[in-house]
Predict the structure.
Amino acid sequence: MAFALLAFNCLMKRICLIAGQSLYISCIYFVYMATELITFKMEQDFLSEVDETVKLSNYQNRTEFIRSALREKINELKLKQAIISLGKLKGASKVKTTDKERIKAREKVFAELDKLIK
């Protein structure tokens, strides 16, 4: 795959010399930013609220705002699931632990939570 991209980049650089820089840039964007188009409906009032938020925030357009909102929601759900998983472990151990062991375990859990969230 990497070789194919490298060969494609070399080919595009040659085309770029003939057709101009903008063709090269748009092709690189297409190769590295492959996205799928989705369509959904919104009430007009809610869409107006989204547009207003986009204007007031640092988002360039609706798409960027919606992507960001979806990523935030996914991360929120992952965190909620991780907390539920931790809750199931509470009291499961019959062995008494020392404070040092608890601190070690807490550090390990938070490291694993960081991995799940990212």
User: Anything to note?
Assistant: DSSP finds five helices and no strands in the chain. Residues 30 and 93 are 52 Å apart (CA to CA).
